[in-house]
Amino acid sequence: MKIATWNVNSLSVRLPQVLDWLAANPVDALCLQELKLPDEKFPLQALQDAGYNHCAVFGQKTYNGVAILSRVPLRDVTKNINGFADEQSRVIAATLDTAEGAFRLVNGYFVNGQEPGSEKFAYKMQWLTGLRHWLKQELVSTPNLVLVGDFNITFDDRDTHDPEGLRETIHHMTAEREHFQGLLDLGLTDAFRLFDQPDKSYSWWDYREFAFRRNRGLRIDHILVSEPLKSRVRSCVIDKLPRKNERPSDHVPVVVEIG
DNA sequence: ATGACGGTGTGGCACCGA
């Protein structure tokens, strides 16, 4: 089973690239973030025509919005974090019934936080606390769990092109990384780090200053798997190719294969 | 210190992202 995550930064703009990518990478499920469109504008027909007959959508106008596109049936779809009231559409979860068994798939567009000390940063901290408490419960009822998405957090110095210059700035705060560690403490594992990876592997590059060409990026898009799945992860890779497209998203897909 | 790029929604720009 292959699962991918991709922050597309507007599904309206990126739909042709998503369809191209799925044609070349026919994953079982693709989790999208930053749809930037309301449910009624979700391109359901085009995705069904591509073989993704099971879509769970939690859209929002202008900002946020997440979806799970799947070839296999989805059930028990939930939106946002149980127990954490949120105006913004940031989380969608579903259970996938696959040949390899049932998996709970949680897709999150984590809060950016803008600047340490800001109200948005406080919201990020509260959101992360709510997420952890909710996931702790989810893991009890569905031990086979995969958490994917745009975390907006680098976990360690390997995940940033400038660990010294960016120390204790947004996406690099100790407080953010403690929340990431809190997710690992639930028994989740960073699937990407289960394998030897190229140095300077990133999933996001700023649009400005030729950041992609210079590989000045961050690894902030992650796939975490629960303890029972850890030994079943066959591969986890970042696909940089879509960043070379015309009008690319600033993020690229991350793909995990679970046997 | 600032802005750089790109998307959205509005309206001749502001706001947001990371």
Overview of this protein structure:
The protein is an alpha+beta fold. It has a single domain, classed as 4-Layer Sandwich (Deoxyribonuclease I, Chain A). 23% of the residues lie in helices and 28% in strands. The chain has five helices and 14 strands. The strands form three sheets. It has a six-stranded mixed sheet. The chain has a six-stranded mixed sheet with strand order 5-6-7-8-12-9. Helix 3 (119-141) packs parallel to helix 4 (174-185). It binds one DNA strand of 18 nucleotides through loops.
Q: What percent strand?
A: 25-35%
Tally of helical runs:
5
What's the CATH topology name? Deoxyribonuclease I, Chain A
Number of strands: 14
| Structure class | alpha+beta
Average pLDDT works out at 97
Biggest sheet layout: 6 strands, mixed
- Considering the protein shown, what is the CATH homologous superfamily? Endonuclease/exonuclease/phosphatase
Helix fraction, binned, reads: 10-25%
Which value, in Å, is the CA radius of gyration? 17 Å
Q: State the strand order across the main sheet.
A: 3-4-2-1-14-13
Unreliable residue runs: none
Classified by CATH, the class is Alpha Beta
Q: Domains counted in the coordinates: how many?
A: 1
CATH architecture: 4-Layer Sandwich
Tell me the distance between the termini.
Answer: 6 Å
| Overall form | globular
SSE string: EHEHEEEEEHEHEEEEHEE
